[in-house]
Write a structure and sequence with these properties.
This is Sugar ABC transporter substrate-binding protein. The chain is an alpha/beta fold. The protein contains 18 helices and 12 strands.
């Protein structure tokens, strides 16, 4: 999910631009900090250290820092807790406080690149091991219009359908054959809600920008879109038949079938609580929801399955990665790339990383954990083989998702996504709370708002 960035370009960034490249920019504008320390070491600051409230993740990260430094005696890692705070990003960059290696969501790189807030790593990245084994569409998310590369993806997910296997069984549905179309979702939701006792067949989000986010998932699953390029500008692209079809499904499940429950204006935690309590049949989600259900809402891994996105014509793709401070010296860029590759994109450490999860009694066998789903070809096969070898959760429950995501197109969230989602929240809210909501009017009104948001995209 993305954020609005304030436009702040530092003097050093402008100097880099004028010089026409990273190395020349450092030579022409250098601030005297190459990152080198006594003894020829390079010190880099990096984000991504988990908070102390996540002791397992924190311990793995800190152990990795020590192991990396032992294997790279010329590099010192200075880890900083936390990930991305868009509200302070530009100010930190301008004030010289932004880390050398910093975390981003998939929705952020386009704006960061346009505002020259990341180093061009095109040449430096050519020496990164296995870079050609990363899914091209994920790398493309970190490229500019000229194909220059500004970051690396380190985690990827696509949306799917998370469902309760026990409720499927109770409703006479086969939990090993989850719905593949929205018609099948609708029929399954009716059967599940017919169980009574407050059980809801299907639930969806509709506030705090999460409703617009999920409506985007609906559109992608039907081969539609939220925004498209029209010449040199972006325009809304959902006030059409596919937009109406998605909202009509939601309307009919809510009001005709009564399979979505009376309580609406839900967000992620509400829906997760329902699923964890065994009161919900299905909802749209990525695989990372499963550990949340278990750890925070008393669920059991064996009770959940994940299917590929119904409709099969597309899915909302998200994830995260790392970019490098545009003020970084060539030495820091090189060291930063070595850290990113070794820590996050290292097939040679797949087995050790999985073993860390096993020893820490963490789940192995979920689609996105504990090694990232960013790979293609032989590396992906190596990854899947190792995860199957060490699986401690029923991986077969998620096989439908794994099979589907390798076949359907994943699309990145639209530009200025958070503002767009805010505009689309009202559409979801209207359809789910007002039986007589005018779908055409809602789409037209939202499209006008989204066009205004997209007009800000440079």
């Amino acid at each position: 999910m993305s954020s609005t960035w304030s436009r702040t370009v530092s003097r050093r960034t402008l100097c880099l631009l004028a010089a026409g490249g990273l190395a020349l920019g450092v030579a022409a504008c250098g601030d005297g900090d190459s990152g080198a320390q006594a003894g020829g070491k390079v010190k880099i600051t990096v984000t991504g250290q988990p908070p102390t409230s996540q002791p397992f993740e924190r311990s793995v990260f800190d152990a990795d820092v020590k192991e990396f430094e032992a294997a790279h005696p010329n590099i010192d890692i200075d880890p900083h807790e936390g990930f991305m705070d868009p509200k302070t990003f530009s100010a930190k960059l301008a004030g010289g406080q932004l880390e050398d290696v910093y975390y981003v969501y998939f929705t952020d790189p386009a704006q960061i690149i346009a505002r020259h807030q990341a180093a061009d790593i095109t040449e430096a990245a050519k020496s990164v091991p296995h870079i050609n084994d990363i899914k091209p569409e994920l790398l493309d998310n970190f490229r500019d219009a000229n194909g220059k590369l500004y970051g690396l993806p380190t985690m990827n997910y696509t949306m799917g359908l998370l469902y309760s296997r026990p409720l499927f069984q109770k409703a006479g549905l086969d939990p090993d054959k989850p719905p593949q179309t929205w018609d099948e979702v609708r029929e399954a939701a009716k059967k599940i809600s017919a169980l009574g006792n407050g059980v809801v067949g299907y639930a969806d989000y509709s506030k705090n920008n999460q409703g617009g986010w999920h409506l985007t998932g609906w559109l992608y699953s039907m081969g539609g879109d939220i925004a498209r390029k029209d010449g040199d500008k972006w325009v809304a692209d959902f006030d059409n038949e596919k937009g109406r079809k998605a909202l009509q499904y939601l309307h009919d499940m809510r009001w005709t079938d009564n399979s979505m429950g009376a309580k609406q204006l839900l967000e992620a935690q509400d829906v997760q609580r329902m699923m964890g309590a065994g009161q919900l049949g299905m909802y749209m989600a990525a695989p990372d929801n499963v550990p949340v259900l278990v750890k925070q809402f008393n669920g059991k891994y064996e009770d959940y399955g994940i299917a590929g996105m119904p409709g099969g014509q597309g899915t909302l793709l998200g994830g995260e990665g790392y970019m490098i401070n545009p003020k970084a010296s060539p030495e820091k860029v090189k060291a930063g790339l070595e850290w990113i590759q070794w820590k996050y994109l290292n097939p040679d450490r797949f087995e050790k990383h999985i073993q860390q999860y096993v020893e820490g009694k963490q789940p192995v066998g979920l689609p996105a954990e504990p090694t990232p789903d960013v790979w293609t070809g032989a590396v992906r096969e190596q990854q899947l083989t190792l995860k199957a070898k060490y699986a401690n959760v029923p991986a077969k429950n998620f096989q439908s998702y794994v099979d589907t995501t390798s076949k359907i197109k994943g699309s990145i969230e639209p530009p200025n996504a958070q503002q767009i989602y805010a505009a689309l929240d009202s559409v979801m809210q209207a359809v789910l709370t007002d039986q007589n909501a005018n779908i055409d009017q809602q789409l037209k009104s939202a499209a006008s708002k989204v066009d205004s948001v997209l007009a800000q995209v440079k």
